[in-house]
Specification:
Strands 1, 2, 3, 4, 5, 6, 7, 8, 9 and 10 form a ten-stranded parallel beta sheet that branches. The protein has helices spanning 27-34, 38-52, 96-108, 125-140, 154-162, 179-182, 188-200, 217-228, 258-271, 288-296, 316-326; strands spanning 57-67, 113-118, 144-148, 167-169, 204-206, 209-211, 236-241, 276-279, 301-303, 329-330. The chain has eleven helices and ten strands. Keywords: 2Fe-2S, 4Fe-4S, Biotin biosynthesis, Iron, Iron-sulfur, Metal-binding, S-adenosyl-L-methionine, Transferase. Pathway: Cofactor biosynthesis; biotin biosynthesis; biotin from 7,8-diaminononanoate: step 2/2. Catalyzes the conversion of dethiobiotin (DTB) to biotin by the insertion of a sulfur atom into dethiobiotin via a radical-based mechanism.
Length: 335
């Protein structure tokens, strides 16, 4: 196992030096970090985490599917794809009032950010106007806003910015090399183009990936290196553990060793120390101990509520109980 000794910026001395934000991480460097002895890896991640964040604070987001099913993309992990043998029934876009009612409940439950997801390849103009009304309403409740709507052009990104959007989620999913094994209906560059349009519009970026799709360690390193080498790191980095859904091509994917998953969280924290690293999909099947290790390795954001877009999430009571046991607290909403 590599000991990371060739990483010039990260010494193996007992006290790692303060690490400035870097945007030139290589796959080889990231892979060496993934292979560090576990205690050393968590020490480095926790040390950097404390330089940028309160290690006892967790940011809470709630995610709502505002338009479910019928997506023309063929993402191998997603039950919303219309191309899979078993798929979710396509539904219409939710009404604005219904979305705002859900946002109010999320705020009352302690969410600081309300995320809205629609199963589109890219939004049509009339749908975008409805989403902008949702954004304006959610902002009026005092919540941060985030949407994920598929690909955006420059004009659409600026329209969302004008509506007051805080964050746009568009994950790269995996490494550039493995991407084609998971999705064929859009390219990796398509993803990057949308992210560039979002950045140019002045919207914060939420961008991460998925672990457990059959990728190798090198692909996990490639995914993190791609994120950490962006000119500006994503403000939010969701790291998802694959939720295997019947009827999707990845329904029988091999399980991920929990320690290997924690390693990905830790390396995301080390390479993007000022970003919120979100422990996203897959928590329903994690033990409290695995989640605790993720928090210790630098995860400081979770989705709160019993469902994500279409898959289960731990009950709010379980999350509260775990955070209370750990002596941790959630981000306080500004008034």
């Amino acid at each position: 196992m590599a000991d990371g000794s060739s990483l010039s910026a990260l010494s193996t001395s007992p006290t790692p030096p303060a690490s400035p934000l870097r945007h030139d991480w290589t796959r080889a460097e990231v892979e060496e970090l993934l292979n560090l002895p576990f205690p050393e890896l968590l020490y480095r991640a926790q040390t950097l985490h404390r330089q940028f964040f309160d290690p006892t604070e967790i940011q809470i987001s709630t995610l709502l599917s505002i338009k479910t099913g019928g997506c023309p993309e063929d993402c191998a992990y997603c039950p919303q794809s219309s191309r899979h043998e078993e798929r979710l029934k396509a539904e219409k876009l939710m009404a604005v009032d219904g979305v705002l009612a859900e946002a109010k409940r999320a705020r009352e439950a302690g969410a600081a950010r309300f995320c809205m997801g629609a199963a589109w390849r890219s939004p049509k103009d009339h749908d975008l106007e409805a989403v902008c009304s949702m954004i304006e309403g959610v902002k009026a409740l005092g919540l941060e806003t985030c949407v994920t709507l598929g690909m955006l052009d420059d004009r659409q990104a600026h329209r969302l910015k004008d509506a007051g959007l805080d964050y746009y989620n568009h994950n790269i999913d995996t490494s550039p090399e493995f991407y084609g094994e998971i999705i064929s209906t859009r390219t990796y560059q398509d993803r990057l183009d949308t992210l560039a349009n979002v950045r140019d519009a002045g919207i914060n970026v939420c961008c991460g990936g998925i672990v457990g799709m059959g990728e190798g360690e090198s692909d996990r390193a490639g995914m993190i290196a791609s994120l950490a080498s962006m000119p500006k790191h994503p403000e939010s980095v969701p790291i998802n553990l694959l939720v295997k859904v019947a009827g999707t091509p990845l329904a029988t994917a091999e399980e991920v060793d929990p320690i290997d998953f924690v390693r990905v969280i830790a390396v995301a924290r080390i390479t993007m120390p000022a970003s919120h690293v979100r422990l996203a999909a897959g928590r329903e099947n994690m033990t409290d101990e695995t989640q605790t290790l993720c928090f210790l390795s630098g995860a400081n954001s979770i989705f709160y509520g019993e469902r994500l877009l279409t898959t289960p999430n731990p009950a709010a009571t379980r999350d509260r109980q775990l955070l209370d046991r750990l002596g941790m607290h959630t981000t306080v909403l500004s008034k």
